[in-house]
Amino acid sequence: MAALLGPISKRQFGQNERSTFGFLSSVEAHGFRAYLQSTPLSQATWYRPSDYWDYLRANLESAILASPDGHRWSQAVEAVERAEAKTGDPLMVAMIKNIAVIDMFRSGSGLAADLPVLSALFYKVPQEEIDGALRKLASLKVALFKSYTGAWSVFEGSDFDIDAAIAQALATSPGLDYAKLSQLMGMHPVVAKRHYHETGSMRWMDLSLRSVEQAEKIAQGYEPQRGEFGQFILALPSRGMSAREAHKRAQACARLKPWPVLVGIPSNHARIAELSAELVALEQVKERHELGGDPVARREVFARLAAARSDLEDQLQAAVSLSKWHGGSDEVVAPGAKLSPVASSLADELYLSCPHVWSELVNRDSVSSNSVKARRDLLHAMVNAEGQELLGIEGFAAERGLFDTLLIASDLYRLEGGAWCFCQPSQASGNGFIELWKATRALFEDSNARVGVDEIYKRWSQPPFGLKQGVLPVVLTAFLLAHKANVAVYKDGMFTPRLNDADIDECLQDASRFTLRWIAIDEDKNRILEGISKLLAEVGEKSESSDPLEAARGLVSMVYNLPEWSRRTQRLGETAKAMRDMLLKASDPHKVLFVDLAFLLGAADGKSYVKELRAPLQEIATAYSKMLGQVEAKMLEALDATRDDLESLRERAKSVAGVAGNFRLDAFATRLASYDGLHESLEGILSLAADKPPRDWVDRHIDAALLELAQFARRFREAEAFVAVQGRQARSEAIAVVIGAGAETTTITRSFAISERHRKMVDDKAADLASMLQSQGLGTDVLLAILAKAGMKLATEKESSND
Q1: Residue 10 burial (10 A CB sphere; 0-12, 13-18, 19+)
Q2: Cβ of 331: how many Cβ atoms within 10 Å?
Q3: Range 436-461 average pLDDT
Q4: Which pairs count as long-range contacts for 116-119, CB under 8 Å and 24+ apart, including other chains?
Q5: Alpha-carbon separation of residue 609 from 189, 536, 551, 733 (angstroms)
Q6: Residue 21: how many other CB atoms lie within 10 Å
Q7: How confident is the model at residue 158 (pLDDT cuts 50, 70, 90)?
Q8: Helix (H), strand (E), coil (C) string for 310-355
Q9: Fewer CB near the terminus (10 Å): N or C of the chain?
Q10: Bridge partners of residue 234, in order along the sequence
């Protein structure tokens, strides 16, 4: 071992030059000092080359693989691992390690792994065992005896020439592929950390490796592509370009606006170019098919690749910190300056009016699924629960955190005039939100134009605001609710009276479907809207607020919420019908309210407008109730019942239900048995008669239902006269009369039913009539003849009047 230390000390593995003193005093694993400290005196023996093998592999393998000895080392490692796997014999493993170390350094030491040397190393092992171990290693193709040297060496299992392969790859390469090189190196972006700490918005600049020519092309029309706001470009001069020319061109192409592109020329660009070319060449060599069955060569290639990448990373780190960065002006970033503070300063300047938003959940461009749900729940609460202190949020769910960080911290939702509401930004909101509101309001300078929500999002995302995609829907909804008195919302070109959960969800999916318009309200228009608000209150439509535009929303909303029959019926006055159709088809409430309706009503000013609007509006609002009232009146008349005594009608219906053996009549009686006079009960009876649900009703269905109700009523009254057959108490009497008189007898037959409410009156009048006739002293036959003649006369007159 002492004979080997001399030549070993002259070797240099990578940047680590080994010395005899360094080896002897080192505390590294498996070193000589570690051997002395860990080996008991009783077990002490020589420090053999096999122990030195363990030292080299534990501490210097990566450096050796990247050195000119890498190929031989890979062969030796492969041989040792094969011996360990196939034999497990400590003697054979120790012997191949000794052979490997002696063979690797034989050129400088003069030692050869011949039989005398190996016998001296293993002096306690019988010669026969040593010979047998060597023969076994040879049979396993782990060790090889070279007759021309008379010594043993490691079996050479690879003849792949890596250096020649790299040279070939470099010769055929058209040049450096900087994009691929940047990808291979995984160059990390430069984060604007201070800006993030102060504003809550994460921003970064890309760091890439390019040629000077590529840097000029990139800077000329640079636009951010993947969320970054600028680029740091390490530009390598081409061969033959002087450093002065490179810096001059870098300064000429660098710029700070509209997006910052800083270009730096590294002082170690020659070494970077050399390592970059080697790295790209090794990537190509790695894919060669010859390596598939050659583990030794494959190990060496991957080791060289790792070493080249490591060296290049070191060079690039040095280049980033030591480069002089040009920004297009006379001022440059001096070598040695850290780039993160530079990126923060550029972000502060670019996003001067960035609103401060402290939310890790949504203040980003890509939001997680859990954060998406929390944001959606918050948006629903904003449109449904404005006025409540916490928007109706209970507990401390994720949406509560968003509520505090996005709305309370920004002072966009606050107590104003004794009520919680969405408001314009205050001084507590910060300058960012104030400027954002001003810029958004400026988009509505043309009151006749509509502004797309996607256009607003784009404006907010760009400098000087730079809002993240996850925050945009919340801020937009706050803006709409704060200005609901002036902002009209359109979905797919149609006016949306009030935002609901479905509108929020659809806007989250596709903001381009929604547009906004700022409604300018002058004094005359304000008078009209106030009048509309009062008219809506008269017909039972309460406004959610006193804002003028809320009256317009209420009018359109009232028409949209009419029952389907009211939206289809033709039984309205011409003005009411035209106004209803106009509002149903309206895509622009501003035009409908202040132009089209004014023309329809013939109104010259706000006062006459409101006066002419009252009658048709009340007609539209009450049409459905009037129709149901007429149906109810005709049904009760046919049933010989009154609205004041519905309890009696319900009792009659209970006695008839299930008696007639007619399913539809039984269904009619069952509905009558629970009839309470409300619209819902009457709709149920009318749906049975029309054989259509209320959503499908048109005028002809109502006409058909009235005829069917008349038939139901007749069958109902006939059936209730015979309920005693089923053992139930009769609620009416059935009477049949046959009358005939004269030589040519004419027979008149009548059958009719008397309801319970008329029974007492019939009994009383019959008794009075019988008493009066008997007081005349006439016989019974005469009396019956008088009654028969009177009956015939009444029946004949009734038939004549019907004809």
Answers
A1: exposed
A2: 9
A3: 91
A4: 118/152
A5: 64, 14, 14, 59
A6: 9
A7: low
A8: HHHHHHHHHHHHHCEEECCCCCEECCCCCHHHHHHHHHHHHCCCCC
A9: C
A10: 209, 264
**Nearest residue to 714 via CA among 668, 749, 675:** 668
Is the pLDDT assigned to residue 255 strictly greater than 70? yes
Q: Average pLDDT over the chain, rounded to whole?
A: 83
Q: What does the pLDDT look like over 524-573, one tens digit per residue?
A: 777 887 888 888 888 877 655 555 567 777 787 888 889 999 999 999 99
pLDDT for position 643: 86
84 falls in which pLDDT band (50, 70, 90)? confident
- CA distances to 62, 99, 338, 766 from 794, rounded to whole Å, are 126, 141, 116, 16
Concatenated DSSP letters for 754-769? EEHHHHHHHHHHHHHH
Lowest mean pLDDT, pick from 165-174, 563-572, 695-704, 736-745: 736-745
* 238-253 burial code (b ≥16 CB/10 A, e <16): eeebeeeebbebbbeb
Cβ neighbours, 10 Å, residue 705: 22
Phi, psi of 451 (to 5 degrees): -115, 125
Measured distance CA(335)–CA(325) in Å, rounded: 8
Show the tokens assigned to 181.
């090189």
* Residue 725 pLDDT class (50, 70, 90 cuts): very low
What end-to-end distance do the CA atoms of the chain give, in Å? 141
pLDDT the model gives residue 15:
45
464 contacts 351 by C-beta, under 8 angstroms:
yes
Question: How many CB atoms are closer than 10 A to CB 727?
Answer: 6
Question: How far is it, in rounded angstroms, from Cα 237 to Cα 265?
Answer: 8
Contact 583, 556 (CB under 8 A): yes
- What is the C-alpha separation between 256 and 666, in angstroms, rounded? 85
* Helical ranges in 585-698 per DSSP H: 589-591, 597-601, 606-638, 646-656, 663-673, 679-690
In 3-state terms, what secondary structure has residue 452? strand
Which of 563, 781, 574, 512 shows the shortest CA–CA distance to 680?
563
Q: Which of 543, 518, 519, 539 is nearest to 530 (CA)?
A: 543
Check pLDDT > 60 for residue 802. no
> Which helix (DSSP H) or strand (DSSP E) does residue 677 occupy?
none
Question: Exposed, middle or buried by CB within 10 Å (0-12, 13-18, 19+), for 570?
Answer: exposed
pLDDT of 1 above 70 = no
Q: Which of 392, 755, 756, 694 is nearest to 569 (CA)?
A: 694
- 235 with 212: CB under 8 angstroms? yes
Whether 743 shows a pLDDT value over 50: the answer reads no
Q: Residue 313, Cβ neighbours under 10 Å: how many?
A: 14
pLDDT digits (tens, 9 = 90+) for 643-700: 888 888 888 888 888 776 788 888 998 999 899 889 999 999 999 999 999 999 999 9
Q: Which is it for strands 748-755 and 732-739: parallel, antiparallel or unpaired?
A: antiparallel
Enter the pTM of the model.
Answer: 0.61
In one letter, which amino acid is 302? F
Cβ-Cβ contacts under 8 Å for 600 (sequence gap 6 or more): 575, 578, 579, 582
Q: Which residues pair with 265 in a beta bridge?
A: 324
DSSP SS3 for 150: coil
Confidence of residue 453 (pLDDT cuts 50, 70, 90): very high
Cα 22 to Cα 29: distance, rounded to the nearest angstrom: 13
Asked if residue 740 has pLDDT above 60, the reply is no
Rounded CA-CA distance 713/636 in Å is 9
User: Residue 340: pLDDT above 90?
Assistant: yes
